[in-house]
Amino acid sequence: MYLGPVLVTFAVGAALIVLFFVPHHQAQAVNAEILEWATIVYAFALILGSISLWNTHARKVRHRIEGWPYSLVTMITLVAVTGLGVVFGTAEGTAVYAIYQSVNSPLASTMFALLAFFIASAAFRAFRARNLEATLLLVTAVLMMIGRVSIGEFIWPGFPAFTEWLLDVPNLAAKRAIAIGVGLGAVSTGLKIILGIERSYLGRSN
Amino acid sequence: MSWAQRLLSVDRRIIFVLIGLGTAIPLLMPVNLPITVTPRVEAAYQTIDTLPEGSRVLISMDYEPDTMAELNPMAIAIMRHCFRKKLKVIGMTLYPAGPGLVEPAMKAAAAAEGKTRNVDYVFLGYKSGFQTVMIGMGESIRQQYPVDFYKTPLDSIPVMRGVNSYAGIDLVVNLTASSAADYWIQFAASRFKKKLVLGATAVMATDYYPYLSSRQLLGLIGGMKGAAEYEKRMDLFGDARRGMDAQSLVHVIVSLLVILGNVALFASRRSGGDGTPARPLGGPR
Question: Considering the entire predicted model, what is its pTM?
Fold first, then answer.
């Protein structure tokens, strides 16, 4: 049933792997052309995402699902900002630029800044030395939190060097192991998709 | 209720107030705590500092407002360094909300060092797709960016003369809060053999330490601390150095809260409790 998409996946996947390693100019020209297609596909994904966003919120507004006024605001904003951007552009002095600088940027920064408050509260309530592993994590976290900021050096001049050692030795060893594992996993998953063994991207789990 | 249980049940709004004060007071009354430049930031600095005059530096600023507190000061410090060394800066972003931050940052850095757009720097703008843009720029920058952010054709921009792929670029700098860094390492550094320096948020910086020892990265600037170190190295007093006092105090407060929470837990258990907080005092938890 899925032979067509699987064959397309195999052909494109195999071709891109080969083209990645072939430096010949004609091979690279083909590669560049496929990349151009990919850029266009990305652009369409943005349109698809916008339509999906619209449909989701339109359904909420239509059926007056809880929080529907927020959905209405989202829809109005989507249309207004897109329209203003398409008609007047996004450069300095335009409406989209002003909206970005005075609404989007402060709101996004605020949302992220709120994390500091919730992390502090969560750390106080949940960061407990319940066993050896948790105790090690807790001690390391406290040392890193103090040692990686200016006050650490103020408290003890050796703090920065100690935290550097923590980062350069135990941390690096663990990160290398994880990176190698992730790399091998990515190669394995890629091969499974190209060879048609993994087909969940077609909408089925097997 | 024992003191330990009382402490474990503290209203979270008290913690919020502590964090708020810990952030606001040092910003209003800075004490300028000492900052040591770490080897990774020094390596990033030296990589840029040793480039010959007129070298082209591609800086991809792949971040949005949520992480601008960490990455914007880094971007401004690096660009100012480039301008001081008379290097040509080619700016770009792979994030749709990036231009609104990157363009003002480039203008601010250029204005501070008396540099001119198109002569000393160019802003290419936003392009969608991480890997495709990075690989595509290895073939032709003009294919990916026929015009710059201001719709000027690249051929008529002096900075871009003779630059049509990574071959015309001497150093790539990526400032990011996302997996864009992985792709820059894979493509710009590994495939196209370009020198690469990374600036990342503090939370993700440690993920990239292995690439320093493999020399796929020549320098790594991590978080606001890294940006503050870079500013110190350049003898600047920018937003990162201004923010370090606040970050220091907040880290101390969080550390003390964690320690206090654990002390209270042990005390509660010793007095026969199970360490479970009692009803919160006066508000939601």
Answer: 0.84
